[in-house]
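RECORD TYPE: inverse folding
INPUT: structure tokens
STRUCTURE:
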């Protein structure tokens, strides 16, 4: 099924805690494509990315998620990761007691197979990638995200992406909390990783990230539905007009 799109969402409905958050999302991401997902707070963007990754709190009540033609809904998050799906979290959590280097090595082993990760080569690759992303080497010895600043956490998410080299990357507000220089460094890092075999879904509130990571498509999620799709110019229009009109036009029906 190598000709199948990387990701196909078909009429995806998702509930969280018994409440319907996604209400029929259709989206196709093919190899080599960068899609941006925008939309007001609470519209369901993180719900969408968490659901694709298989977070247990998010229940698919209707519709399908296909990855290279394979149905994902029954698969565990680690199985999805092995297929080549990666999620950079909006709010990365800390893992006390586990160093960043050990954590990254463990995740790489889980994906590639332990026998395919040689400690010395891993170390070299890790330090090289850290340098590219402007992360001080000292961070390798620190516990994952423990006391990291907002921007440091986001850089480490991209560091993980760089090492895992996924087929599909979901970046949930990777730009939030980054200062101007860090935004450029992280965006450059992502751009270097993007290749014609990879698909990317970038969730962001800000056009400025999209000046660096240029999307082929921009979609707007409002109240759990994709209400508009277009090219990069759509992000500019949204920045100018805000979401008011779209929110009014796509209010959740009473009782839903
Ligand atoms: N675990 C949860 N328990 C209860 N409600 C949840 C949970 N996860 C999401 N929701 C609700 O689902 C809705 C969509 O949330 P989501 O985080 O997907 O929005 P978002 O579009 O990512 O917003 P933001 O732009 O603020 O990040 C919100 O109303 C949120 O409160
Ligand atoms: Mg979110």
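DESIGNED SEQUENCE:
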């Amino acid at each position: 099924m190598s000709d199948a799109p990387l990701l196909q969402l078909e009429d995806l409905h998702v509930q969280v805690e018994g409440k319907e958050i996604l209400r029929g999302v259709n989206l196709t991401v093919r190899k080599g494509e960068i899609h941006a997902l925008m939309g007001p707070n609470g519209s369901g963007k993180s719900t969408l990315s968490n659901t694709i990754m298989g977070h247990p709190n998010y229940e698919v009540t209707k519709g399908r998620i296909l990855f290279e033609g394979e149905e994902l809904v029954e698969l565990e998050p680690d199985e999805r990761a092995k297929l080549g799906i990666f999620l950079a979290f909006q709010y990365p959590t800390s893992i006390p007691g586990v160093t960043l280097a050990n954590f990254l090595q463990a995740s790489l082993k889980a994906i590639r197979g332990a026998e395919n990760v040689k400690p010395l080569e891993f170390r070299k690759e890790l330090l090289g990638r850290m340098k590219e992303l402007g992360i001080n080497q000292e961070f390798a010895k620190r516990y994952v995200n423990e006391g990291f600043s907002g921007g440091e956490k986001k850089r480490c998410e991209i560091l993980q992406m760089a090492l895992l080299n996924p087929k599909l990357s979901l970046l949930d507000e990777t730009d939030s909390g980054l200062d101007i220089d860090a935004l450029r460094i992280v965006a450059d890092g992502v751009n270097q990783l993007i290749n014609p075999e990879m698909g990317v879904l970038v969730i962001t509130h800000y056009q400025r990230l999209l000046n660096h990571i240029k999307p082929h498509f921009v979609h707007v999620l409002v109240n759990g539905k994709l209400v508009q799709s277009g090219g990069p110019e759509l992000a500019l229009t949204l920045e100018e007009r805000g979401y008011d009109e779209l929110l009014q036009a796509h209010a959740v029906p009473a009782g839903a």
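NOTES: The chain is about 35% helix and 30% strand.
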